[in-house]
Design a protein that fits this description.
By secondary structure, the chain is an alpha/beta fold. 30% of the residues lie in helices and 25% in strands. 48% of the residues are buried. This is Carbohydrate kinase family protein. Keywords: Kinase, Transferase.
Length: 338
């Protein structure tokens, strides 16, 4: 019987630079502090899951460079006994990201060097040796080789997900938020072979051609169901989840769920780096444990909220029991009717 969760694809070393405000072009701003952290889906989700449940086996599958950044990331992952690094390979240059954290409004902007992530392809995962029940691959639009066209399946990513499902492995995907027009061509092929699609409102809207925010940034709640249904129609087999700062919305093919975010005073928020990956980790853990979608979304909400209490992506993540208490005891934002 398969057990555990595999996280494959993008890894990065993050340098979090806190600034008073993000500058306009040609303007200068002061960096108040610099902090190094793990980043990218493989490290963020793997460590989050390892902290949620110390007995859960997490298989981390990625490329690291034989450089100082790669050694740092390896040492961080190797700190957790339940993270399996047997499918980690050393090649090329380690990706890194400058995370510019605006101290005023807590937003963050990413400047990334893709490095060896462009080399990660359909042969980078030994599916036969994989022991996990769920395989999460991220991020679509950031893994160049997997985003390449495949004449039969649409993309190389879709082909890889199909092979995993044929071996009885549940699949999960995430997408990177980029400005561009690639979504509607690159994302849908993978949805046909995805069990769990957990993405934010920008990525969801771009993937189906329906914006979920207006020009002022207001959430267009009347279109959320349309997006959930459309993503499911494109082939997602089990759960579609769209998360936003205000809450999250899920569809399991029968019921639609709306879960408000926890209400956290802005003064208590140290950073938002990795909140999306923390949310994904909560959903994946719930799916692995056999929770229903509603329960999994509540856990994911608490997981994402806990990550906000620290500047980096994973230091704030709590274990399962603490996350349940956090969700039960913390005030919630107003319910979002959709």
């Amino acid at each position: 019987m398969r057990k555990g969760i595999a996280i494959a694809g993008t890894i990065s070393l993050d340098e979090i630079k806190a600034v008073d405000c993000y500058p306009d072009k040609s303007e200068l701003t002061t960096i108040n502090s610099v902090r190094r952290s793990i980043g990218g889906a493989v490290s963020n989700c793997s460590v989050a899951l390892a902290k949620i449940d110390r007995n859960l086996v997490v298989e981390a599958i990625t490329y690291l460079g034989n450089d100082e950044k790669g050694k740092y990331l390896y040492e961080c992952l190797n700190t957790y006994p339940n993270i399996d690094l047997k499918q980690l390979k050393i090649i090329g240059e380690t990706p890194f990201t400058d995370v510019i954290q605006d101290k005023h409004d807590k937003t963050r902007t990413f400047l990334t060097f893709r490095g060896n992530s462009s080399l990660f392809n359909e042969n980078s995962i030994d599916l036969i040796k994989l022991k996990s029940k769920i395989l999460h691959i991220a991020y679509i639009l950031l893994l160049d080789s997997l985003d390449e066209e495949d004449l039969e399946y649409g993309t190389k990513m879709a082909k890889l997900l199909k092979k995993a499902q044929e071996l009885g492995i549940k699949t999960s995907i995430d997408i990177v938020s980029e400005s561009g027009i690639r979504y509607e061509k690159t994302v849908p092929p993978s949805l046909k072979y995805t069990n769990y699609c957990v993405i934010n409102e920008y990525e969801a809207g771009k993937s189906v051609g329906i914006n979920l925010r207006d020009r002022s940034g207001k959430l267009l709640t009347g279109d959320i169901k349309k997006v959930l249904y459309k993503l499911k129609e494109l082939g997602v087999k089990d759960w579609v989840v769209v998360h936003v700062p205000e809450g999250s919305f899920g569809y399991d093919g029968k019921n639609v769920y709306s879960i408000p975010s926890l209400f956290i005073e802005i003064e208590s928020i140290k950073g938002t780096v990795g909140a999306g990956d923390a949310y994904v980790a909560g959903i994946l853990y719930g799916a692995h444990k056999g929770f229903n979608l509603n329960e999994s979304m509540k856990l994911a909400t608490a997981s994402a909220a806990s990550s906000l209490f620290e500047e980096d992506s994973t230091s704030g993540i709590k274990n399962y029991e603490e996350l349940v208490l956090l969700y039960d005891n913390y005030p919630k934002r107003e319910d979002i009717k959709i």
